[in-house]
Amino acid sequence: MSWLSPPAEHRAHVAPSLLAADFTALDRDIARMTIGGADLLHLDIMDGHFVPNLTFGPHIVQAVRRLTDLPLDAHLMLTRPDLYVDRFIQAGADAVTIHIECEADISDTLAEIGRLGARRGLSLNPPTPVEELRPYLRQVDLVLVMTVMPGFGGQEFDPSGLDKIRALAAAREAGGGDFLISVDGGINDRTAASCRAAGADIIVSGSWLFHHADPQEGISLLRG
Ligand code: DX5
Ligand code: ZN
Fold first, then answer.
1. 180 CB near ligand 1 (under 6 Å)
2. Which of 5, 51, 165, 206 minimizes the number of CB atoms within 10 Å of its CB?
3. Residues assigned a catalytic role
4. CATH code: domain of residue 205
């Protein structure tokens, strides 16, 4: 599975978050997003412990894998992602994103994701200072900036994420790693524009995009 190159300047890749899809018609919704021009799919995995909600596991990721050729990013909102990364990669995830606030050893888990052949993603919640990522920036392919407290779709965008995006873009520019910057939570056409201006490479959108009448138009508004 091919991964993403950096997007053209001032533009972004778009990752629909399947959390907002209609799970009775997942094939239809994935097809709509694919035809609409999605660049990858974002899969929210929640354990009911790291976040106060439950979603789905590797079995559904495997089903999604059979429905699309798009790259899949598994966003693991799990207290112990280290116990599951192999199963998500086996199920077909191209990237696995873990949280810096989890209870696993971050370096070891990122190394394991890479060893198993997937892209290594690291995410941080709104209250976590971006400085905490610094020791790991050379070990990741993707940083996922959360602009809501994870757990639920449809929340309001926290603009403090914009400074984090800028700080990450500056760190990368200064030679501190080679990663894509992704942003997740409360993204619509307006907040996406602010994220792109701050330096985001990947825009994740759930509620806004899935409620947009025309996915192609929605995706192109997010892409810039
Ligand atoms: C939140 C998830 C998000 C969510 C985004 O816990 O990580 O990916 O699906 O949904 P919206 O775009 O509705 O905020
Ligand atoms: Zn997510």
1. no
2. 5
3. 44, 184
4. 3.20.20.70
pTM, whole model, 2 decimals? Answer: 0.98
Q: Give the model confidence (pLDDT) of 146-158 as tens digits.
A: 999 999 999 999 9
| Nearest-CA residue for atom 4 of ligand 1 | 153
Name the amino acid, one letter, at 41: L
Is 218 a pocket residue for ligand 1 (Cβ < 6 Å)? no
Domain count, the chain: 1
Average pLDDT of the chain is 97
- What ligand 1 atom has the least distance to the C-alpha of 19? 9
In a domain, 7, yes or no: no
41-46 β-sheet, strand order: 13-16, 202-205, 180-184, 142-146, 119-124, 95-99, 72-77, 41-46
Q: Is the CB of residue 153 below 6 angstroms from any atom belonging to ligand 1? A: yes
Ligand 1, residue 46: give the atom nearest the CA: 6
56 and 84 Cβ atoms separated by less than 8 Å:
no
Residue 29: which residues within 8 A CB-CB, separation 6 or more? 18, 21, 22, 210
